[in-house]
């Protein structure tokens, strides 16, 4: 006998991201590329890796691309190639993923945190100069959530104090600052192709880009045991390789990146329009002249945890990026920071909430998320 369900079934389930949906849109290309790598045993280096490096360099308008095993390694390799040595200080934002700063320490340097902007979540240029000492060697701006950092001001400060700039583009493939692609400002740019990133592999992968031939060669040597040809060890390096399978997969996905980026921007615009009507929700601020690529669509709310629980009950998956700002995680307890040192990053950690966004998301799914948020905000007016 038919029994009515006790609880009405949600018409919609909205995952935070849906990697399988993306795979299904390009399945034949991906499957053929994987089969080809296996058929030719092109597992390490070789034509697949070279082809991806060339194509990625063209896509981001860089002269050189050096691939490596993941985005974290790319930061470490870049800093070694830039000559970071014991006691050197590197300035990085207080609000980022830990890769940005753990690699400063690995390269031998000292992490110096700088607060982020109250609205854009990127490093606040007005706070950088007070952090500069005679030991400072570089700055790592992070284009967080897909929004470019304020590169004009950062480059001016760097030039004045003779510092290098390493752009962390892990969340910002194809984002633009005043018409210019991110990654083209600093000495080098670091990319992650972690599966959930805007361009994602089916495993770990990363890359560096630069227009400096000497730096490109040093970075390639460091990633490959200190030499670019087998048996050549001019310096001690590491083993950090993009493998053939990931390179072949990334080469299939790369031509779709501009369309996937536009899809993210279109979905973000739909969120923006709908959320503008709701009290208590702060939408992402896009700085003047910036083109945001929405790796994450991050709102703020005073009762963030209650809002997240309400959305979970409506089958909407959300994430907090990141629940504890870097200076306050146990790994940096040695620096003895308090919230007052980085008021913006500290204030954001309890308020930020990343809503679902992925290129295959539908307008109906956005409507569902917005309706669930509206229900929450109206109940609490
Ligand atoms: C993902 C990410 C990285 C590191 O990338 P992996 O490929 O996961 O090692 C570095 N910086 C930022 C800001 C990231 O989001």
UniProtKB/TrEMBL annotation:
Residue positions where N6-(pyridoxal phosphate)lysine is found in the record: 197
GO MF term set: pyridoxal phosphate binding; transaminase activity
SUPFAM superfamilies: PLP-dependent transferases (SSF53383)
Alphabetized CDD domains for the sequence: AHBA_syn
Catalytic residues as annotated in Swiss-Prot or TrEMBL: 197
GO BP field: polysaccharide biosynthetic process
Transmembrane segments: none
Record's keyword terms, sorted: Pyridoxal phosphate
Top-level division of the source organism's lineage: Bacteria
The family this protein is said to belong to: Belongs to the DegT/DnrJ/EryC1 family.
Name under which the protein is recorded: dTDP-4-amino-4,6-dideoxygalactose transaminase
Natural source organism: Panacagrimonas perspica
């Amino acid at each position: 006998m038919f029994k009515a369900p006790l609880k009405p079934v949600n018409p919609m389930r909205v995952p935070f991201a849906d990697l399988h949906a993306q795979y299904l849109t390009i399945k034949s290309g991906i499957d053929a590329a994987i089969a080809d790598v296996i058929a030719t045993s092109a597992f390490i280096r070789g034509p697949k890796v070279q082809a991806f490096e060339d194509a990625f360099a063209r896509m981001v308008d860089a002269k050189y691309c050096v691939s490596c095993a993941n985005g974290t390694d790319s930061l470490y390799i870049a800093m070694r190639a830039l000559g970071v040595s014991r006691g050197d200080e590197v300035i990085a934002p207080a609000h980022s993923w830990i890769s940005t700063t753990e690699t400063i320490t690995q390269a031998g340097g000292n992490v110096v945190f700088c607060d982020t902007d109250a609205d854009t979540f990127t490093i606040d240029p007005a706070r950088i100069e007070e952090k500069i000492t005679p030991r400072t060697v570089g700055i790592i701006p992070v284009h967080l959530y897909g929004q470019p950092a304020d590169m004009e001001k950062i480059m001016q400060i760097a030039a004045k104090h003779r510092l290098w700039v390493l752009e962390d583009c892990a969340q910002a493939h194809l984002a633009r600052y005043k018409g210019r692609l991110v990654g083209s400002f600093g000495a080098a740019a670091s990319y992650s192709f972690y599966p959930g990133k805007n361009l994602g592999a089916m495993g770990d992968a990363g890359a560096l880009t630069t227009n400096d031939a000497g730096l490109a060669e040093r970075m390639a040597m460091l990633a490959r045991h200190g030499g670019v040809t087998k048996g050549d060890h001019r310096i001690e390096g590491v083993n950090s390789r993009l493998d053939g399978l990931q390179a072949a997969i990334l080469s299939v996905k790369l031509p779709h990146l501009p369309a996937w980026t536009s899809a993210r921007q279109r979905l973000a615009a739909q969120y923006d329009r709908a959320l503008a009507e709701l009290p208590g929700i702060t939408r992402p601020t896009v700085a003047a002249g910036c083109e945001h690529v929405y790796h994450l669509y991050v709102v703020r709310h005073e009762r963030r945890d209650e809002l997240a629980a309400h959305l979970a009950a409506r089958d909407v998956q959300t994430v907090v990026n990141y629940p504890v700002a870097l200076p306050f995680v146990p790994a940096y307890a040695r620096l003895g920071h308090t919230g007052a040192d980085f008021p913006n990053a500290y204030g954001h950690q309890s308020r930020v909430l990343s809503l679902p966004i992925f290129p295959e998301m539908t307008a109906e799914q956005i409507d569902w998320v917005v309706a669930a948020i509206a229900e929450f905000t109206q109940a609490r007016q």
